[in-house]
Each structure stands twice: as C-alpha cells, then as structure tokens.
Amino acid sequence: MTQSLTIIRPDDFHLHVRDGDALAAVVPFSARQMQRALIMPNLKPPVTQVADALAYRQRILAALPANSTFEPLMTLYLTDQTTPQQVYAAHAAGMIAFKLYPAGATTHSDAGVTDLFGLMPVLEAMAEVGMPLLVHGEVTDKTIDIFDREAVFIERILQPLLIELPELKVVFEHITTAQAAQLVAEASECVAATVTPQHLLLNRNDLLVGGVRPHHFCLPVLKREQHRQALVEAICGPQSHKFFLGTDSAPHAQTAKECACGCAGIFSAPIAIELYAEVFDKAGALDKLQAFASENGARFYGLPLNQQTITLRKEPQMVAEHFVYGDHAHLIPLRAGETVSWRMVD
What we know:
Layout: E1 4-8, E2 11-15, H1 20-33, E3 36-39, H2 50-62, E4 71-77, H3 84-92, E5 97-100, H4 120-129, E6 133-135, H5 149-164, E7 170-172, H6 178-186, E8 191-195, H7 197-201, H8 205-208, H9 225-236, E9 243-245, H10 254-257, H11 272-282, H12 289-301, E10 309-313, E11 317-318, E12 323-324, E13 330-331, E14 339-340, E15 343-345
Parallel strand pairs: 2-3, 3-4, 4-5, 5-6, 6-7, 7-8, 8-9
Antiparallel strand pairs: 1-10, 10-15, 11-14, 12-13
C-alpha cells in the first residue's frame, strides 16, 4: 500500500522569484506548493523602499496562475542608509522584515551593510515594533576561508548582537553549520532559523567530487557531512520548533550557472516539499514535517496557520531536465533528470 501524508499547506519563509520574464517563469512553481512565501528583496536595484516593495508585490500577484491563493510576504533590503523612520513606515505598510546582506556576501549584495553595529538605532526601532531581522550570516573578510564564514559571523557579529539587543527578533537564514544549529537551539525564543533542502540533503562532496557541479553551488556554500547531519538533527530534535522551511530557491539561467564564473543559487521550487519529505522520511521523523513546513514559521512571525492542506504520496517521480526561463533560456532544477521519492498530489 502506498504511503501518503496530508499536512497543512506549507509556507516558504525564504524565496527568490526574480522579476520580469523570470518572475513569470518561476512563481507558479511556488504557488502550486506553498500558501505564502517571504520574498527576498535582492533585485537589481534592491528593494529598499516601501513603495518599491508594494509595486513588486503587485507584479508577483499579476504573474500568478488564475485562481491562485498564493500570498507573497514582502521584505526590505537593509542598507547603510536605512533609518528608523523607514522601519516605522515599513511596519505600518505591512512589510514583514528587513533582510541583512553583508556587502559582497552573495548574489546582488553589493548594496549590503558594511557595519551592522553602525545601524543600532535602526535595529532598536525594529525591536520596538517587532520586525525581525533576517540574517545572511557570513563574514566577507577575504582572509577567512569560505567554509568558515558562517562560524566566524556567529562569533564576531551575531552573538554580540544578541547580547546587545536581546529583544530583537532574528531569523538566521539558510543555516549550514553545527555551530549555527547550536546557537539557534540555545538562544532565546526571539531567535529562529530557516533551513534549505540542499543543506539538509547535500554536503560539499556533492559540489566538488568528480568535478565541480555548478548547479549545487550556493551561498552559503555546502559544508562537511557532519554539519549536514547536525542540521537534520536540529529540525528533528527537542528544539525543532525554532527551525522552519525556507528553500532559498534561487533561479539562474543555465548559461549563468555553467560558465567560467558561475553564479550562486539552487532552484528547488518545483519539488521543494517533496525534498523536505524525503529528509524527514530518511530521519524517521515524518511526524515532524508539518510543524517544520507549516507551523513553526507562521508562529514565529505571528501569522495564522493556513486552512488548506496538501497530500504527499511516497512514490518516485522524475524531475524535469530543465524548465523554460525567459526567451531561449533554460533553468536547471535540483535533482534534474533524477528522481525524488515523494510526490505532491494535485
């Protein structure tokens, strides 16, 4: 008998949908699986103003399939020029959070923050109104090994910040290390984390052994197997309510990934919930999938639980080799041409 599982429709609390033709190509995949998604603001130029975020939201809604109930939740890009007044205006306009990109840390982060502690009045305003700070947790010091940048960020920036401003709500985004999992588990209830499917399923061997695999290149970069195992233990462990679904699905054209300087980002949106089901199934913890995918994030952000449900069936499905991505371009998903062991039933 085929195993099936029905859960509350999930939310994706870390999603890139780009803009223009790319937006139209990718947002239907998330809308099929997710009820809500927290939209990342690192467009070019970045989404730093409320009016820009509201306009972007309308473009996302216009790209949705007919009768879709998908809801984009909007964020603003934190810069060195952000002011407390912008925080108050963003909160009043229904913005969900501000996103910290350390300058130069990842895709489209050139306008990011150069000195987080120079923005203490802004962070204090966020704490006052209850707006979370979403953290891309890596230092950009060129003397620090890329595999150590998350751990060094914890030591140099995040731990001091949590001591100085303990009432600030912080989401440690797309965590990749045992150190990050431990920090979140031991921190106050003001601190939570998103975890991606790639960091739960892959380690750095999957990126580098047998040749560089550009479609497994993301930032933060994949880490050692011991860190992958620590993340799986965290989402299944006694403090699992502090971890929730955030795919960091980040589409790039095949030509932009398979080149001399391939860009960072993994596109997982078409099979996101199936990949997470595979992780929990392998860990013997399918009973914790609904909390991770559909409850923990909503509760952290103070949102109601979704009313709709989805059903997953344990049967293999073949992942497409590629999808259309704008004019004459292909988009390569995670597991392209391979199988995933679960299927979302339409």
